[in-house]
Every structure is written in C-alpha cells, then in structure tokens.
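Supplementary Note 3. Input sequence used for the single-chain structure prediction.
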Amino acid sequence: MFGIFMECWVSLKLYFGNPLHGILLLLSAIYLAIAEKDLKKRIILGFLPLVVMAGFLFPVTKIVYVAVFDEGSDTYYRLLWLIPSYVVTGYALVKLIVTLENLMKKTFVLWICLAASLILIAAGGSLVYCNRYMSVAENAYHIPQNVIDICDIISPQKGSRVRAAFPSELVHFVRQYDTDIMMPYGREMIATQWDYYNPVYEVMEKPDEIKASDLTAALRESGCDYVILSSDRLIDEDITSYGYEIVGSVDKYNIYQDTTVDKEG
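The predicted structure, written as discrete structure tokens, is reproduced below.
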C-alpha cells in the first residue's frame, strides 16, 4: 500500500509541476472551507478540492480506478481535473484581500495585497513566450504554414476523404486544419508512455533507415492514398519504383501519391 501511495504522491507532484501551485491550492481550499459563508461555494471550492486530493492519495482509489479502466495507470492523474484549481485559488485570494481591507478600513491595503498575490502566483509559473514550443504565428490557424500547404495539395474533393501518413512532427496539426484528411496514426503514437503499436508508424518512424518495401506494404494495408516524407529521411530505395509518384514538395517535405489506388479500387 505504501508503494502505491508513493506512486500517487509522485503523480500529484508531477501534475502541479511547481510545488507552489499545489501549496496555494491546498491553502486556498482550507481557507474557503473555514471562512466561506455560502454553503454551495464552501462545498465546491473548499471541501471538494480537499476530498479529491485526499482521495487521490488514498491507495485504494488508484487500485479501483486501474481495475475499472484499461488505461487507468496512465490516466489516473485526470481525477485531479475535478478540482477547479484556478477558480479556487483566485476566489480565495480575492476573498482574503477584501476581508483584510474591510477589517483594516484602508484602501491601500487592498492594492498591496493584490500586488503581492499576483507576484506570488506569477512566481509559481514561467514566461510562456520563453517556451521552446512557442513561435510567431505564421497564419490565422496558428499552425505551421508547411502543414497548410501540404494539406491544400492533397485535400480531397468536397464530400470525400483521403488518408495520408505524415511525419510525426506534423501529425498534431493536420486535423486542426482539415478534418477530411485521415491518418493511420496520430499523437497517440508519439506519446511513448502509451506504447501503442501501428504498422505504418513501425516502419516509417522507428528505423534509422526506412525499408521502402515494408513502408509501401504497410501504407497499402492501411489504405493510405498519400505519404509525406522529409527529403533528409534515410530510405533504402526510391518508393517511386513501388508505384508512387511525387505530386508536390513543400519546404523539405515530398508528397507521394499511390498511383495504384484507383486501379485496385
């Protein structure tokens, strides 16, 4: 039981990231459970977060969750989504500031406490613009422009769909732009902790050098009309010798279409 408790404790720490977030939430919930007069707010913003966090750390909760859900060990942290974290912390700080201001009857206290609260919250985070995943938007969709250009080339006629295999670095964005473009695998393959299996991903992404015969066989087995490959991706043979042709290029990506699809259809 202690081992399971420690797993839950580690998951809780990873969920909050910076410990300050967890500490602020805990203190805010305790404060609201004691000081809030409105019963509904007291239960939802005070007692509920405390009960959920305590239940999350209780080993039996995880045992039951993992037994009920197939992917329970990977998704257990989602129980913490039941806590309206930002609402609890924000409401508690505002309530505390207003209470202090009323007690001391000095307006400047409100501003001092507000500034201190904002600094405290900011100290628990990081500047989002320094994140390595942040970049200047290239278009109104806020996705890489090369994804849009590729999708425009392979986009099907209205009312129909196509299936295309994209390199793993592009799969996150495709269906944000065009839902008529299907893929043999998505982000579930990139999240390595899930350890899923997909035949196209196995031969297209895992090897240092792609084996053309294996790739084309997997693509046809999965019903792919197109495959997009980076020009710097190692491959033992040119897949055009397997019935594919280049229908376009965008930046470093070549777009191949299976010319046997209509014949086989």
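The chain has a mean pLDDT of 88. The chain has two domains: 2-130, 145-264.
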